[in-house]
Design a protein that fits this description.
The complex is a heterodimer of chains A (306) and B (432). In chain A, 48% of the residues lie in helices and 18% in strands. Chain A is of the alpha/beta class and 306 residues long. Chain A folds into 2 domains: 110 residues, no CATH class; 185 residues, 3-Layer(aba) Sandwich (Rossmann fold). In chain A, the strands form 3 sheets. Chain A has a 7-stranded mixed sheet with strand order 3-2-1-4-7-11-12, with helices on both faces. Helices cover 80% and strands 0% of the residues of chain B. Chain B starts with a helix and ends with a helix. The chains are: A alpha/beta (306), B mainly alpha (432).
Chain lengths: 306, 432
């Protein structure tokens, strides 16, 4: 990996943890539009060559983001194909920006489809547990609320920022919620009717890559027979042969005891890998799928890509 | 005998202030108490020696800046400027340097660098560039900007308090050297760091990464709640303060009355969103007590006649005002590079007042401006020359950028000598 790709990867990991991969994709697309507007390369060919370098960087981050590969891979064909084949066209910037805007529009459409498909989940009068700060899950809950459905949410408390992101979004949407520390969920098993999760991607090993802490909550509620739903678009699939746990990053740092002069090493993990089979249904833009059906859809896409 | 005791107390206190064995305020206060205990000053004389105008002005500005910061206006301005640069390193460099100078002219330098340095590091480091030249520029411009106004830097507040020069006097007498010094510093930075700050508008990858970072910064800011009415009240209060300072001659009111009025009215108007207890807690009492202690110690020294003798010595050595101004400028410049400029300026106040008295009706006010320029700009010379320098290095370290003493001095010392040379040229033309 070049240092620029490393730098970009670090930035993407940081932002993904903060806003999720779907919003991150849109942020990078918008930044690309800003960059094209400000680009003052002397020759048009410079732009085409540099776009290829950009596409190479964005699709080879560490870890690779399925959603990046999906949208930027598509965009590369458009830019290096259509836009760069008409080098004499003075409106190339406008053309390139239009293509990016179309991709953004398409991505939004995919998300809308997913949200619409979530209507198949009956939440009326139910209590839903959420844990990660998946913006897709948040959007789905806001959608339900907009439809006048009555339900309650329990937020499993985790990292301060993520929990507060959930609190802020639900509060703004007028959804009633309570917060319970993630390690105390065993006391409310009977109160939870369903559990909602989002994910970063789906690997070819049929594991979702999810927020850390997700696996323990999922197994805990699986054991109790509470249905667990995943909300994830098929545009996030990792359509390549995965390396073993390559997407999990380990952050080690030294901490000090709050009162005593004791230093210790603290380890944090970036993601959890969760088997698809633990979910009752997976709500995607292509419909509501069972784990078995999801595997078929994934394999078909993988085969087509090859 | 009493003279020796006085000098002894002062020298020991000064050494402890320099080496910072204890908090500076404790040393200054103990020194002040010794002056009273040893009957060098009566308690009444000690109280009388404290320049309350200076202390009250500092206190009012601290309260005003604290409430203003709570509104998020400074972060908002930072983010707007970051967005305006569109990720162009040259634009980031130029705009943030100018912003630092402007902020420093009206806020204290430490607050300024706390607001600007972390954002600069986030933008520049995130783009894979070395943030050091940017941080160095911000340090230098915080001291340059602070040197322009009465409220920009503590030495100017002390000089203003002692001489009665108002806000307009400072700008009218210092804008020319500050302008030329700024141009010199900017040119030196651009020439030496051109490779690191040149525009990237022909590099699509760099430009995209830069725009991602700007969006990230904007996103962080959007998360914070900004109340428009609060921001408007803060802008109005700051404007009223500056206009009040500018019209001080007509208003016939001391600076601290203007600043205190703005701070208290703003506190009342924003009382639902700010806590006055918090605003008063933000006042750096140790700094104010340090000032008070110093004023008393210097009054003790003054009473012995040592400073008067020093003034006579200086006047007897030359009657050329330009040479005198040069001595004041360069001595204060070099002293400020290594020592805290506040005690130095406090000691110099009676010395220059003595020189002024020796000249009778001849206008030697240029000596005050030489003192201000030397004390404010000399602080640029080393990493310990001014509080803003030390704080910037700390902020850089916290963000993974290591700035060493030599690292900084290799660049800053020759530049500061150049800056003092520009000021010397200005003094020459003024005294012609």
């Amino acid at each position: 990996m070049t240092s620029k790709t490393e730098l970009f990867s670090d930035l993407m990991r940081e932002l993904e943890a903060d806003i999720g991969s779907r919003d991150l994709t849109d942020l990078v697309l918008q930044s690309l539009i800003d960059a094209i507007r400000g680009f003052k390369g002397s020759k048009f060919n410079n732009f085409c060559k540099q776009y290829s370098e950009f596409a190479e960087m964005v699709t080879n981050t560490e870890p690779k983001f399925g959603i990046f590969r999906y949208y930027f891979g598509y965009l590369e064909k458009e830019i290096t194909g259509e836009v760069c084949s008409i080098s004499k066209n003075k409106k190339w910037k406008k053309l390139a920006i239009n293509r990016i805007e179309e991709v953004r529009k398409f991505a939004r459409k995919q998300k809308r489809k997913l949200i619409k498909n979530s209507d198949e989940v009956d939440v009326e009068g139910k209590t839903i547990l959420i844990h990660d700060h998946s913006h897709t899950v948040q959007d789905v809950l806001v959608h339900f609320r907009g439809q006048g459905k009555k339900f309650k949410v329990v937020i499993a408390e985790q990292d301060y920022e993520k929990t507060h992101d959930n609190i802020e979004r639900l509060h703004n949407a007028g959804i009633s919620f309570t917060v319970v520390p993630a390690y105390m969920l065993s006391h409310i098993h009977d109160n939870i009717d369903m559990v909602f999760f989002g994910a970063l991607t789906l690997k070819d090993t049929m594991h979702f890559v999810m927020n850390p802490g997700a696996l323990s909550i999922i197994t805990e509620f699986q054991l109790e027979g509470v249905p667990i739903f995943m909300f994830m678009g098929t545009d996030k699939f990792s359509l390549w042969k995965s390396k073993k746990r390559s997407e999990i990053f380990i952050h080690k740092h030294t901490r000090k005891h709050i009162h005593k002069p004791i230093e210790y090493e603290r380890i944090k993990y970036s993601h959890d890998r969760v088997p698809v089979k633990l979910f009752k249904k997976i709500i995607t833009n292509e419909g509501v799928l069972t784990p078995a059906r999801l595997k078929k859809v994934f394999n078909e896409k993988f085969k087509n890509l090859k | 005998m009493l003279e020796y005791i006085t000098l002894g107390i002062f020298v020991v206190a000064f050494i402890f202030i320099v080496i910072e064995r204890f908090d500076k305020s404790l040393t200054a206060l103990l020194g002040a108490l010794m002056m009273v205990i040893f009957r060098i000053l009566t308690p009444e004389e000690a109280i009388h020696a404290i320049e309350f105008e200076t202390i009250l002005l500092l206190m009012a500005m601290m309260i005003l800046v604290n409430i203003a910061s709570k509104s998020g206006i400074f972060e908002w301005l930072n983010v707007k400027i970051a967005a305006f640069t569109k990720g162009n390193p040259l634009a980031i460099f130029l705009l943030f340097s100018v912003l630092t100078a402007v902020f420093s002219a009206f806020l204290d330098n430490v607050t300024t660098v706390i607001l600007i340095v972390p954002l600069t590091i986030e933008l520049v480091k995130g783009m894979g560039r070395d943030p050091k030249p940017y941080i160095f520029a911000e340090i230098i411009f915080s001291n340059i900007g602070g040197g322009l106004t009465l409220i920009g830097d503590p030495p100017n507040i002390i000089i203003g308090g002692a001489t009665g020069f108002n806000f307009v006097d400072f700008i009218a007498n210092l804008w020319i050297p500050i302008l030329f010094v700024s141009i010199l510093a900017m040119l030196v930075f651009l020439i030496l760091n051109w490779r690191r700050i040149k525009p990237i508008s022909d590099k699509l990858v760099d430009l995209t990464i830069a725009n991602v970072i700007i969006r990230k910064v904007k996103m962080k800011f959007v998360k914070k709640t900004i109340h428009k009415d609060f921001v408007i009240k803060v802008i109005l209060a700051l404007l009223v303060t500056i206009v009040g300072f500018l019209l001080q001659g007509y208003l016939q009111l001391p600076n601290y009355v203007i600043a205190f009025t703005a701070a208290i009215v703003l506190a009342i108007l924003t009382s639902k969103k700010t806590s006055i207890h918090e605003a008063f807690s933000s006042v750096e009492w140790t700094t104010l007590l340090f000032f008070a202690g110093l004023f008393v110690m210097v009054a003790g020294i003054e009473k012995t006649g040592v400073l008067e003798e020093l003034s006579h010595m200086v006047v007897n050595s030359t009657s050329d005002i330009f040479i005198l101004a040069l001595i004041v400028l360069w001595v204060s410049g070099f002293v400020s590079m290594i020592l805290d400029n506040i005690p130095f300026v406090t000691v110099m106040i009676p010395v220059i007042a003595g020189i002024q008295a020796s000249f009778g009706d001849v206008d030697v006010s240029i000596l005050w401006w030489a003192l201000s320029l030397g004390a404010c700009l000399g602080g640029n010379g080393t990493l310990i020359g001014a509080s803003a320098n030390v704080i910037s290095a700390d902020l850089a370290k916290k963000n993974g950028v290591n700035i060493t003493f030599l690292n900084y001095m290799k660049f800053s010392l020759p530049l500061t000598i150049g800056i003092l040379a520009v000021c010397s040229a200005y003094l020459y033309f003024v005294t012609l």
